[in-house]
Design goal:
mainly beta; five-stranded antiparallel sheet
Length: 122
């Protein structure tokens, strides 16, 4: 059996970036290693529409540490109120109520008929 090679100071760098407009998949990652220290960052779009970016480091002294940031993909739009418009005629507001397509039959409530009140004196 051949002896495995040992690198006392491993080093590498890699990166990838995916933006698939058909599936909506969007993610990227970069990472590099220099000896026992690894640094990197990756990002992806979560199901709730936020982009998550994780920056991480790992080394023998501090272990693995990550900082996670989330930001919405759609920026909030400021609404600016328009100046009021003076109108000489304003149409009345019309509210249309639409009844459901089906109706359950309800019999009318029974009506009790009572005669006139009678007063008795003893």
């Amino acid at each position: 059996k051949a002896a495995e090679e040992y690198d006392p100071h491993p080093q590498y760098k890699y990166a990838y970036d995916v933006h698939d407009s058909l599936s909506g998949d969007s993610k990227s990652q970069v990472e590099e290693r220099d000896g026992d220290v690894v640094r990197g960052e990756y990002s992806l779009v979560d199901a709730d529409g936020y982009k998550r970016t994780v920056q991480y480091t790992a080394d023998p002294i501090n272990g693995f540490n990550a900082v996670v940031n989330r930001e919405p993909l759609v920026k909030a739009v400021k609404t600016i109120a328009a100046a009021p418009v003076v109108a000489h005629y304003a149409a009345p507001a019309v509210v249309k109520t639409v009844a459901p397509a089906y109706h359950a039959y309800a019999a009318p409530a029974p009506v009790a008929h009572y005669g006139p009140a009678v007063a008795y004196h003893h």
